[in-house]
Amino acid sequence: MNQDEILKTNKHYWDTYADLWSGATALPDYGVHFVTEDELHLFEAVAGKKILEICFGSGHSLKYLADRNALELWGVDISHKQLENAERYLRENGYHANLICSPMEAEIDIPKDYFDFVYSIYGIGWTTDLDGTFQKIASYLKKDGIFIFSWHHTLNYCIAWSCENRKNVYENDPLVMNKSYFDESYFRIPIDGSEILLCNRKISTYVNALAKAGFVIEQMVEQTDDATMQAKGDISTKAKKRKCFRFRFCSRQENYREKPNDQRGECIIE
Ligand SMILES: C[S@@+](CC[C@H](N)C(=O)[O-])C[C@H]1O[C@@H](n2cnc3c(N)ncnc32)[C@H](O)[C@@H]1O
């Protein structure tokens, strides 16, 4: 599968179905049934800071951080529809953001050595070039900047999941491994009468890409929310799966390598 096909297919999905997901995966949530910013406090120091969101989607996370007095709001997203929605949502709430419609993998006119925070809530896994994307993010961050991101747990599409039917498969209690953890090839997921193209990356792929870009991991969180963990009795298949291997992971990294201009940054995953 080539990069153009992947980007075209995923952009088509988001341009068509953006409205279905408005605010669904946005701060204070890092993901569905994951611990929230209210517990993690990763953005506590955002007041007065310049922030950039990779895959800003509906704009709800930018608004959340603007409410906490972030100074400058920037964002990149591949979807024109998301850009329209986010601009409108932020305007209705009295905020302005510099929003750019582009794949995150592209050379984009974003200032370098400029941001205090770069973050992505459920966005990074969409990249077709993880190494290149992390390197770009490191270049946007200024010295001591922070990178925070969240994504599916790397076992999500390997265990108790049917790719063909786009649903969790959890029968008679055992969690069946349906797909090799080492297989990072792209696959089609039918959704809403359309489709998206994704791949499943290993934890080491994320860690090594971060290291290559000069980041050091400060924190990684793998934690399903308390309500799901404590749920008993007749709970959904999804909830059973989340109770078993905790659904998301989240980490925080610091860019330690000396860059030519002595730039440093930090970073976080879900
Ligand atoms: C699951 S949504 C999450 C967005 C955001 N957290 C929200 O709550 O709306 C994923 C977003 O990634 C964007 N996206 C997908 N592939 C992309 C790419 N290659 N470059 C930039 N944005 C991309 C989509 O348009 C979509 O807005």
Structural description of this entry:
Strand 2 (72-77), helix 4 and strand 3 (98-101) form a beta-alpha-beta unit. 41% of the residues are buried. The longest helix is centred in the N-terminal third of the chain and has 15 residues, at 3-17. Strands 1, 2, 3, 4, 5, 10, 11 and 12 form an eight-stranded mixed sheet that branches. The chain has a two-stranded antiparallel sheet with strand order 6-7. It has a two-stranded antiparallel ribbon with strand order 8-9. 28% of the residues lie in helices and 25% in strands. The chain has a single domain (3-20, 32-269), classed as Vaccinia Virus protein VP39 (Rossmann fold). The chain is an alpha/beta fold and 270 residues long. The chain is globular. The protein contains eight helices and twelve strands. Helix 5 packs across helix 6 (203-212). The two termini are 27 Å apart. S-adenosylmethionine binds next to helix 1, helix 3 and strand 2.
List keywords for this structure.
single chain, alpha/beta, Rossmann fold, 8 helices, binds S-adenosylmethionine
